[in-house]
């Protein structure tokens, strides 16, 4: 049974260089830290979500009643599992495992739609069961780093079905060309977003969901009062401004060059899965379990792949970092790879 509860932070330990967690920066930028510090002055009062909700709505081109603020993207998945009673939920894998874990914890029947390596891990809408009335996928997808065309994802929307698209990494793509966040014409579409990756806010737990007002109201009914803290609300409002969004886009463009630098350093016996577009790459290496442990012994934490449905112990997810870090990692990886890999294992 796949361990759906395993995440990249479990790979970390003091002294290890972190390539296992996909947060872009070690701390929020100074201007955002100032916003968070200032928000503490209002901590004696109960959180007021109004300004942050309005800011997210304006940035997303939606009415306020189509916005739900959440304690991170993970809460949104739990709310969907509580509010929606699917006859059959289909989760597209390999993918972030929290949505399936939430659905199973709520007792819902789940079928896995596993994409294929030979297809570049690209979405095939025809593989999703017609009778699935809840469909979940990520775009771009964690851990494959594949960006699916919005037109292809939109094919999954239909009356009577909830289509949950996890866009936690959408802002790692310059211009967010395949995002469905502003699409109000697709029936049952719920888009989940997070501030975690770009702004270094994993510990703050801040995200939001966008969808039809009626469905958003059903999700909100499953939340306790004041689910999002005052600092998280301040971050949501601040990161929704045009200036902040321009900064995020600049970071996404910088990420492209950093990812290219990482890929250029990798040894030839390593397979890069799919066509990576996000802040991480999925690798397949010979004798992956041993390689991961050897990397750890040499001071590198990488994300194991076998806890993602559809992947194996030979898969490793690597976060994109500065070029000098990527260069040092590639040298360490080269040193621990088998000297004569089996050609049957690495085509």
Keywords:
347 residues, alpha/beta, Aspartate Aminotransferase, domain 1, seven-stranded mixed beta sheet, five-stranded mixed beta sheet
Question: What structural class results from the helix and strand content?
Answer: alpha/beta
Order of helices and strands: EHHEHEHEEHEEHEHHHEEHEEH
The domain count comes to: 2
CATH topology of the largest domain: Aspartate Aminotransferase, domain 2
Largest β-sheet summary = 7 strands, mixed
Describe the structure.
The protein is α/β, with parallel strands linked by helices. The chain folds into two domains: 8-26 and 244-335, Aspartate Aminotransferase, domain 1 (Alpha-Beta Complex); 30-241, Aspartate Aminotransferase, domain 2. Helix content is 33%, strand content 16%. The chain has eleven helices and twelve strands. It has a seven-stranded mixed sheet with strand order 2-8-7-6-5-3-4, with helices on both faces. Helix 1 runs antiparallel to helix 8. The mean pLDDT is 95.
What's the gist of this structure?
The chain has 11 helices and 12 strands. It has 347 residues and is an alpha/beta fold. The longest helix has 24 residues, at 242-265.
Detail the topology: elements first, then pairings.
Elements: E1 17-19, H1 30-39, H2 50-60, E2 67-70, H3 73-83, E3 89-93, H4 98-105, E4 110-114, E5 134-138, H5 150-154, E6 162-166, E7 189-194, H6 196-199, E8 207-210, H7 213-220, H8 230-239, H9 242-265, E9 271-272, E10 280-284, H10 288-297, E11 300-304, E12 315-319, H11 323-336
Parallel strand pairs: 1-11, 3-4, 3-5, 5-6, 6-7
Antiparallel strand pairs: 2-8, 7-8, 9-10, 10-12, 11-12
Helix pairs in contact: 1-8, 2-8, 3-4, 9-11
